[in-house]
Amino acid sequence: MSLMLYKLNASPPARTAMMVCELFKVPVKMVDVNLSKGEHFSPEYLKRNPLHTVPTLEDGDLIITDSHAIAMYLADKYGKDDSLYPKDLKSRAIVNQRLFFDSTVLFSRMRSVTVPVIIEGCKTVTEKQINDIIEAYGYVETYLSNTKFIATNNLTIADISAYAVVSSLLFIVPLDGAKFPKTQTWLNEMEKKPFAQKYNVNGAAELGALLKEKLGS
């Protein structure tokens, strides 16, 4: 029986879930949720996800409504080995920390721009918002100074999650590759991955176009 993934291509968290599904070859049916038409506020959707967010994963009677939790669950259920989500306690703790870093720092700083601009009609990005994003790039650079990927020397679900957000932040604040060379190299390598080409590149560009339209630039 196929799982159901409710998603929006422009959403970085949804793209994380989509890329993880692709990577693990999860038997999943993907269903678009049109936020501009308010489909996420329908009684049917709110019953699944009271937070009215995307993505939402439905696996039989199990419903998971956070992209990081979805990635962890799918890695445990469908991973052929533990390379993408280590079972070793210390290694997993580092991957988890990077996932939470994505949630509390990277995505939080992106959302501080996208919500006012896309939903509330704000026409500017403040200097503080710009500086906060640049600071976040610096944190990513620091992590990548210690390992090839964001958590370990191998690709993990933390890279997929962070990549979905950082590749979207670029449309708000372009990355200075000279200042953050390791981050630039990591982004270039991530973008080449088949799962990124299939489920991230176009969605990130879609979000970028929407931001540009809303900002009137």
Automatic annotation (TrEMBL):
PROSITE patterns: GST_CTER, GST_NTER. This is Glutathione S-transferase 1-like. SUPFAM superfamilies: GST C-terminal domain-like (SSF47616), Thioredoxin-like (SSF52833). It comes from Bombyx mandarina (Wild silk moth). One of its GO terms (biological process) is glutathione metabolic process. Residues 88-211 form the GST C-terminal domain. It comes from the Eukaryota. PANTHER family: GLUTATHIONE S TRANSFERASE D10, ISOFORM A-RELATED (PTHR43969:SF9). InterPro entries: Glutathione-S-Trfase_C-like (IPR010987), Glutathione-S-Trfase_C_sf (IPR036282), Glutathione_S-Trfase (IPR040079), Glutathione_S-Trfase_N (IPR004045), GST_C (IPR004046), Thioredoxin-like_sf (IPR036249). The gene is LOC114250783. Residues 1-82 form the GST N-terminal domain. Homodimer. GO terms for molecular function: glutathione transferase activity.
